[in-house]
Design brief:
The protein is built from 5 helices and 4 strands; from the N terminus they run E-H-H-H-H-E-E-H-E. With 143 residues, the chain is an alpha+beta fold. It has one domain.
Length: 143
């Protein structure tokens, strides 16, 4: 399975706005790591019992999945969006900004994650990039 470094940054209106969400965001990320491990072990279950149990165990991550998949195929649907970093994780909160980086599956899609930070946690703006798609040579400024 290929992996890549993913990098996300998000901005809140004020430091206080972010500060009010830090514990919830951290809990969501921790729940996400546990949810993806559980998914890997149980993904071959039938959809109805899978998602019922998933919702009871991981309520915030289930709410997140409801925003981005149909909840019909537990084996494949979550694959691109249920990717929470659990290796080389770097999470920082400062001055109304959050930054997160870590290693995840190289085909992960963090668009829904970015959008959930805005809809659920009140981020004003967010964006992400993966070194799977990033050409570091294009970022070098010559002088």
């Amino acid at each position: 399975m290929g992996e890549a470094g993913y990098y996300l940054t998000a901005r809140w209106n004020t430091h206080d706005d972010l500060d009010a969400q830090k514990d919830r965001i951290t809990a969501f990320l921790d729940e996400g790591v546990k949810a993806q491990d559980w998914w890997q072990e149980h993904r071959r279950m039938d959809a109805e019992p899978f998602f019922k149990e998933f919702e009871s165990k991981f309520p915030t991550v289930f709410k997140y999945l409801q925003t981005c998949i149909k909840l019909e195929d537990p084996n494949n649907e979550p694959a691109r969006v249920l990717n929470f970093p659990d290796e080389d994780v770097n999470l920082k909160f400062a001055n109304g900004w959050m930054s997160l980086s870590g290693i995840v599956w190289h085909l992960a899609d963090w668009d829904p994650f970015r959008d959930f930070l805005k809809s659920e946690f009140g981020a004003e703006a967010a964006g992400w990039v993966s070194d799977e798609y990033l050409d570091p040579w294009s970022c070098i400024e010559m002088s």
